[in-house]
Design goal:
Oligomer: heterodimer
Largest sheet of chain B: 11 strands, mixed
Distance between the termini of chain B: 34 Å
Shape of chain B: globular
CATH class of chain B: Alpha Beta
Number of strands of chain A: 0
Radius of gyration of chain A: 17 Å
Strand content of chain A: under 5%
Helix content of chain B: 25-40%
CATH superfamily of chain B: Amidase signature (AS) domain
Shape of chain A: extended
Order of helices and strands of chain A: HHH
Number of strands of chain B: 11
Distance between the termini of chain A: 43 Å
Largest sheet of chain A: none
CATH architecture of chain B: Alpha-Beta Complex
Strand content of chain B: 5-15%
Strand order of the largest sheet of chain B: 1-3-2-4-6-5-10-11-9-7-8
Structural class of chain A: mainly alpha
Structural class of chain B: alpha/beta
Radius of gyration of chain B: 21 Å
Chain lengths: ~90, ~500
């Protein structure tokens, strides 16, 4: 494996682990810390507008909300054979 | 020949008849609509803009009025009509299109100041089809920035302090105020039917995959639909016939042309499922009575009416996940290059939601799409048992336009259902949007404040004709769709 490929793989794995960490934080404390959001953000690239504390605060709320939304979907009783709608045609 | 006031409010077939019998030419008609728009619509501020409160009575339904383009198209239409060569029923008719669809050489802003000067070098597929049909594009209609909810600068012509909802607010307001012959809107979660409800327009959200989205800003690839807006259900059918069809550039489109039948025929024996729990969301006795009287119209036609239950799914969570992930992906460059900072202030939370969507693991997005697939099967099973199903498009008339902090989020009017009741009630509109069913919003009366009320008729996938049949049959027996907002518009 090339060094670049390994770095990308490691980053993806880390991002996934970070998200799980964020989910656990919301479940344990009911909220998400700015530090955790900042770390999640850093995996997306340059912070850009999120250098602004007000924007980071908005993002913190949005990510916490997204985590709660996902809990709703994860808890929904799905047929184990149910595939995703990844190719969506209605005709 | 002079255009009368009543001409501006004619239906598509009536306008086409006027062109055919020489009552007016396309140039005369187009010029009259353009003059009317310039007189009644242009606000004292530049568009696109954040929602404002200084309209000075202008409706602000048009970001760009394409006068030269429209008159050149109208001249061409007149030559062809004079040669006895009509391309379609829309030949020579002026229309407005939501400013999400690319129009070659004419700015297309997506409702955002970021793209204030964006001039595409191509037409969207829908624009090409309408051009091929001889229709005259006269205006780019205002909308919520990036097709976002109730955030447009366009006013509601029934009462200027009420919302026109969104995001196709400019298109619907322009149609009802007699500023365009017909319009084109888009819908991801309600953006044709909700504004149509607020202003009493007839608006059709076609089956997902009926109409090509090529050349239209993508908000959510698996939810976006483009559809017609008019002053009647029949208008919507004529327009859909022109714009529908397979397009290799949009792989969601089905190879199913739509041949519109303008006569719904007898409705006797047709089956209509009524989602009764949504009718109970209307807290006002007046509103409940209006909706019931509308259902009685169908019963008097001989339609068999039966109450239905819709499946209880986490539809809000589904919609949030799908839209924020897909939007966040599509608008990535706005964050990467910092332009996201220039979005209008009311979109700050929405912008944050897009970034949160980008962070979501793929497995969670796929979980949402699995839940969605299950909802598709269950919703299809219910709806296919009827010729159509029906519910109020919105439980009440349009709420106040401006509330807290100057944000144009509608105030809860006293007739809105409590949050816990509302959230516990499945909503036909959201289910239909998530699963791709067609839906037609038609006016059915007025509330105690004189604001329109609307019903949404939903059908099985690719059965757009059925929803149009119910709409046309209703409008054959009633005249709500003929009512015009009184001018001067009420403050």
């Amino acid at each position: 494996m090339r060094r670049r490929d390994f770095a990308a793989l490691a980053a993806a794995s880390t991002a996934g682990a970070l998200w799980q960490q964020a989910c656990a934080e919301v479940e344990d404390t009911g909220a998400l810390s700015a530090e955790t959001v900042g770390t999640l953000l850093d995996h997306q690239g340059p912070r850009g507008i999120y250098e602004d504390p007000a924007e980071l605060e908005r993002l913190r709320r949005a990510v916490a909300n997204m985590i709660n939304v996902q809990r709703t979907l994860r808890e929904f009783p799905l047929d184990p054979d149910e595939p995703p709608v990844t190719i969506f045609r209605r005709g | 020949m002079a255009i009368e006031e009543s001409t501006f409010f004619l239906t598509v077939s009536e306008l086409a008849g006027g062109l055919r019998d020489g009552s007016f030419s396309s140039v005369e008609l187009t010029r009259a609509y353009l003059d009317r728009a310039e007189e009644l619509d242009v606000p004292p501020f530049d568009l696109p803009s954040e929602p404002r409160e200084d309209h000075q009575g202008k409706l602000a339904t048009m970001v760009t009025i394409a006068r030269d383009h429209a008159l050149a198209s109208a001249e061409r239409a007149d030559r062809e009509l004079a040669a006895g060569d009509p391309r379609s029923i829309l030949h020579g008719l002026p229309y407005g299109v939501k400013d999400l669809l690319d129009t070659r050489g004419i700015r297309t802003t997506w409702g955002s100041g970021i793209f204030r000067d964006r001039i595409p070098d191509r037409n969207a597929a829908v624009i090409d089809r309408l051009e091929e049909a001889g229709a005259v594009m006269m205006a780019k209609n205002s909308l919520g920035e990036f097709a976002g909810g109730n955030t447009s600068s366009a006013l509601n012509p029934w009462k200027l302090d009420r919302t026109s909802f969104g995001s196709s607010s400019g298109t619907v307001s322009a149609a009802v105020a007699g500023l365009i012959g017909f319009g084109i809107g888009t819908e991801t979660g309600g953006s044709i039917v909700f504004p149509a409800s607020a202003v009493g327009a007839s608006g059709l959200r076609p089956t997902f995959g009926r109409v090509s989205r090529f050349g239209c800003m993508a908000l959510s690839w698996s939810l976006d639909k483009i559809g017609p807006v008019g002053r009647s259900a029949e208008d919507c059918g004529h327009v859909l016939e022109v714009i529908a069809g397979r397009d290799a550039r949009d792989t969601s489109t089905a190879d199913r042309p739509f041949q519109f039948r303008a006569d719904p025929g007898s409705m006797r024996g047709r089956r209509l499922g009524v989602h009764r729990s949504e009718f109970l969301l209307s807290q006002s006795e007046t509103t409940r009575r209006v909706f019931q009287e509308a259902l009685d119209v169908f019963a008097e036609m001989g339609v068999e009416i039966e109450d239905i239950e819709l499946p209880r799914f986490p539809t809000g969570a589904l919609f949030t996940t799908i839209v924020t992930v897909e939007s966040g992906t599509n608008f990535r460059s706005l964050f990467d290059d910092g332009r996201a900072a220039q979005m209008f202030s009311f979109n700050e939370d929405r912008r944050a939601g897009w970034m949160a969507g980008r962070m979501l693991p793929a497995a969670d997005y796929l979980t949402a799409q699995r839940v969605r697939n299950q909802l598709v099967r269950e919703a299809d099973e219910i709806v296919s048992s009827y010729d159509a199903v029906i519910a109020p498009t919105w439980p009440n008339g349009a709420a106040l336009r401006v509330v807290r902090d100057g944000w144009p989020i509608p105030a809860r009017n006293e007739w809105e259902p409590p949050d816990d009741v509302s959230e516990a009630t499945p909503r036909l509109n959201y289910i239909a949007n998530v699963v791709g069913h067609p839906g037609l919003a038609i006016p059915c009366g007025f509330d105690e404040d004189g604001l329109p009320l609307s019903l949404q008729i939903v059908g099985s996938p690719m059965d757009d004709q059925a929803v149009l049949d119910f709409g046309m049959a209703f409008q054959r027996e009633t005249d709500w769709h003929r009512r015009r907002p009184p001018f001067p518009w009420r403050e």
